[in-house]
Every structure is written in C-alpha cells, then in structure tokens.
Amino acid sequence: MPDLTSIAKKMRGRLDKKESAREDALKLSRKIIRECRSSIASIQGGRDPEETIEAAKKMHLQLKKVLADYPDLLASGYTVDAEQELAEVEILSAAIIDVDPPTPEKVGVTDEAFVLGLGDSIGELRRVFLHRLMKDDVPGAESMLRKMENFFSILMTFDYPDALIATKRKQDIARGLVEKCRGELILSAQMSQLRKDLNEE
Q1: Which CATH code fits 1-109?
Q2: Considering the entire predicted model, what is its pTM?
Q3: Which of 122, 11, 145, 23 is nearest to 73 (CA)?
Q4: Does the pLDDT value for residue 84 go beyond 90?
C-alpha cells in the first residue's frame, strides 16, 4: 500500500506537468493576441491581414493541443482573451471584405469567446466608418453603420448573467458607438449636401 510520501510525489509530478502546460499556454495566448492585433491594424490600414491571421490560427491550434489534458486551463481568462481576439479579427475581416461571417466552429472558439469578439468588432467597424467618413465616402460609411447595427442587434439577443457570459458592458458600449455613428452620418450627409448646394449657386 503506498504511503503519503509516494502519493505526494506522484501528485507533484502531475502538477509539474500542468504548470508547464500553463506556462506554455500563457506564452501562446500572448502571441495570439499580438498577432490578432497586428491583423486588425492591417485591416484598418487597408493591408492584407491573411498572414497574421493564419499565424494566430496556427498558434491557437497549438494552444488547444497544449491544454488538451487540462480543460480547466482551457477555460481560463488568458485563454478566453486569446480566443476572443481571434473571433474578433475573423468577424471583422469577413465584414470588411463583405463575405459570410465565420461560425464559432470554423474559428475554433467557444460560443462565449465568439460573442465577446462580436461585441468588440463593433468598435473596430466604427474606426472603418470614421475613416470612410473623413474621406467623404458617405455610402461607404453608411455600409459600415449597417453592419454595426446588424452586429449590435445580434449582440443584444445574448441576455445572460455575467457569470455565464459578460455581455452587458459590451452591449452598453456598442449601443453608444452605434448612436454616435448615426448622428455623425446624418451631420456628414447634411454638410455634403450643403457643399453641393453652395457649389451650384
């Protein structure tokens, strides 16, 4: 019959492996977030984000492999943050090039991470909206606003306690962004019409 010393030794061995997996997961999560943010910067700058998105996706697969034996770590904050960023950039990229949105299964993330990424993508769409508005591209800005409104309406259907999925704050922020964009679009359209009327005089 094993004594407590041998039991403790086996437990330390298992926990050492888990600690090592956790350290690897932390590093990978940080790298995924960096790659995703680089992808978003590329999208905002009108550059192709495919290379950095693919790099993030490969690291995400590696992350899930590292944590395959530790589902509790897979659900930890830093892992969810990485998956949320990945969902955000995939949703944003699809919206900008006007293709069908990805599914959580295609991105390879949880439903919770996907919904949170959807919420954050509204803020990034606002940046594109403003960029187009500054270029006096009212139709382009209006197109972005329609996407924001669509994302917001979907986000609002996720009415769950924050203990399950923390959407309340993202919903409040998204509502404010959509309302700002509506006001800015109306003002821009009025200014554009005013300039047109002055030029015709």
Answers
A1: 1.20.58.2140
A2: 0.86
A3: 23
A4: yes
Q: Which of 10-14, 26-30, 70-74 has the lowest mean pLDDT?
A: 70-74
| Tokens read off for 66 | 């590292």
pLDDT of residue 1: 67
Mind spelling out the 3-state secondary structure of 111-156? HHHHHHHHHHHHHHHHHHHHHHHHCCCHHHHHHHHHHHHHHHHHHC
How far apart, in whole angstroms, are the C-alpha atoms of residue 40 and residue 34? Answer: 10
Please tell me the distance from the alpha carbon of residue 167 to that of residue 120, in angstroms, as a whole number: 10
Location of each CATH 1.20.58.2140 domain in the chain: 1-109, 111-201
Tokens of 28: 């990978």
111-201 has which fold?
Methane Monooxygenase Hydroxylase; Chain G, domain 1 (1.20.58)
Neighbours of 24 (CB within 10 A): 15
Q: pLDDT tens across 37-55, in order?
A: 999 999 988 899 999 999 9
